[in-house]
Amino acid sequence: ILNVEQSPQSLHVQEGDSTNFTCSFPSSNFYALHWYRWETAKSPEALFVMTLNGDEKKKGRISATLNTKEGYSYLYIKGSQPEDSATYLCAFPESGGYQKVTFGTGTKLQVIP
Amino acid sequence: SAVISQKPSRDICQRGTSLTIQCQVDSQVTMMFWYRQQPGQSLTLIATANQGSEATYESGFVIDKFPISRPNLTFSTLTVSNMSPEDSSIYLCSGQGTTYEQYFGPGTRLTVT
């Protein structure tokens, strides 16, 4: 069983604040790291697929970085908005080209207007 | 990307009964999966739905309890059999994309009384 951890478990920020949270994963046998956003009453939505050490990906106000050598990824949200409120999940595939992923426990973000 | 529909969206069932959840993908995906999210926990993989053959179950999940079918590339069902209150969860199906990200259905919220 792979150990994929996310911190913090939950986070409250004021609208307009920037925030970030962490996903840590095994640094050996790395293939990719996925980030998902899961809003209440909706499906989890894929945000990023990260594959290379030093990768930085951006989607609007959300960006993510990857450090495969030390086994962590950061997700950043700039200027948080209430619609950013969701649980953010990272997922770690267990072998190359394969399908099976281990999900972290998630970071639940609430943006207060 | 793939669009995945799932039904029912929610159900309340009595102990000892069974519920079948259907998952339909709008385009062909290579892999389909079934997950469960119990209250306060992350997504846990139940099984990989294999087209035309028996599903591949994860540790702790068995075919008698969670029979799965996948008669073609775009459709799968999960049955939760002989339900108990411990089976109360959100059940999600997903399909894997070409870069191994997963596309999720909206989930089925099951309450067993």
Furnish the topology, listing elements before pairings.
The complex is a heterodimer of chains A (113) and B (113).
Chain A: E1 5-7, E2 10-14, E3 19-24, E4 33-38, E5 45-50, E6 56-59, E7 62-67, E8 72-77, E9 86-93, E10 101-103, E11 107-112
Parallel strand pairs in A: 2-11
Antiparallel strand pairs in A: 1-3, 3-8, 4-5, 4-9, 6-7, 7-8, 9-10, 9-11
Chain B: E1 4-7, E2 10-13, E3 19-25, E4 32-37, E5 44-49, E6 56-57, E7 68-72, E8 75-80, E9 89-96, E10 102-104, E11 108-112
Parallel strand pairs in B: 2-11
Antiparallel strand pairs in B: 1-3, 3-8, 4-5, 4-9, 5-6, 7-8, 9-10, 9-11
Contiguous helical run count of chain B: 0
Q: What does the average pLDDT of chain B come to?
A: 91
Number of strands of chain B: 11
Instruction: Spell out the helices and strands of chain A N to C.
Output: EEEEEEEEEEE
Strand content of chain B: over 45%
Describe this structure in words.
The complex is a heterodimer of chains A (113) and B (113). Helices cover 0% and strands 52% of the residues of chain A. Chain A is mainly beta and 113 residues long. In chain A, the strands form 2 sheets. In chain A, strands 2, 4, 5, 9, 10 and 11 form a 6-stranded mixed sheet that branches. Chain A has a 5-stranded antiparallel sheet with strand order 1-3-8-7-6, with no helix packed on it. Chain A is globular and about 40 Å long. Chain A starts with a strand and ends with a strand. The model of chain A has no long low-confidence stretch (mean pLDDT 91). With 113 residues, chain B is mostly beta strands. Chain B is built from no helices and 11 strands. In chain B, strands 2, 4, 5, 6, 9, 10 and 11 form a 7-stranded mixed sheet that branches. In chain B, strands 1-3-8-7 form a 4-stranded antiparallel sheet, with no helix packed on it. In chain B, a hairpin with a 6-residue loop joins strand 4 (32-37) and strand 5 (44-49). Chain B is globular. The A-B interface holds A 32, 34, 36, 41-46, 49, 89, 91, 93, 97-101, 103-106 and B 1, 4, 30-31, 33, 41-45, 48, 92, 96-97, 99-107.
